[in-house]
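Problem statement: downstream parser choked on a complex file, so we are re-checking the raw output for the NAP run. The parser issue turned out to be on our end (a line-ending mismatch), but while we're here, posting the original submission so the record is complete.
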Amino acid sequence: MLFRSLVTGATSGIGRAIALELARNDAAVIVSGRSRTRGEETVAAIGAAGGSARFVAGDLGDLQSIAALAAEAADADILFNNAGAFGFSPTADQDVASFEQMFDVNVRGTFFLTASLAPKMARRGGGSIVNITTMAAEIGMVGAAAYGASKAAVLGLTRTWAAEFAGDNVRVNAVSPGPTATEGTAEVMGPDGVAQVGTTVPLNRSATVEEIARVVAFVASPAASYATGGTFHADGGRQAI
Ligand code: NAP
């Protein structure tokens, strides 16, 4: 069966790996993000691997852009709320603009995109939504107060949406990646930052984007048909131990 999927933040990092993994599993993928250039690169990589994808631009910090994206992706069976902003900072130094960007993109954007697409899935008989959160949502991490709080809000949305949409066969779960080397983390934490965080998790290393994408694709898929409202940790054991 060909699933129709929307991956936000698929122009880079974890989202791009999710889009590639889905395409390998026979999904038609909408690749979204603000950068058309990087989005078209993801689409080309999927095409080169024999998959099916198209790019739809979307800025999750902008409500009009979200409405346009939701209209383009109205028939999506699976939604991956992956796009994220992470402005790490000590609390006293966090500027209002980066605080607002994290809550606008990570919380408000996720909320209103889902509010548009989940009811459509429900009317068609079901669907699956995966929200990407972080270990900073569940454990205290210095420098991640606002970021962790924004993702903790996403965990709250995950549980409430699981309850709200279960009767319509729409499953809603979260995946919490551990430190994963991406373009975004290299920019924010420097080239070695993620590897250093990797030494603090029980598996003693950071993840590859493919390791996260495989977990995300499984949770979204019918193979996980009895899972809803859960948070799946792909974090090298950091949350558990
Ligand atoms: P990344 O390489 O920086 O990619 C972030 C993606 O989000 C890009 O595709 C970017 O696309 C998109 N994005 C950012 N702001 C956006 C906006 N306003 N509107 C639409 N798209 C936007 O980051 P990543 O490391 O892959 O992170 C992906 C997700 O995983 C995030 O939610 C992050 O919080 C979460 N996460 C990452 C890690 C990690 O260690 N890497 C760990 C835990 C959780 P454009 O620039 O094209 O807009």
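For whoever reads this later: The radius of gyration is 17 Å.
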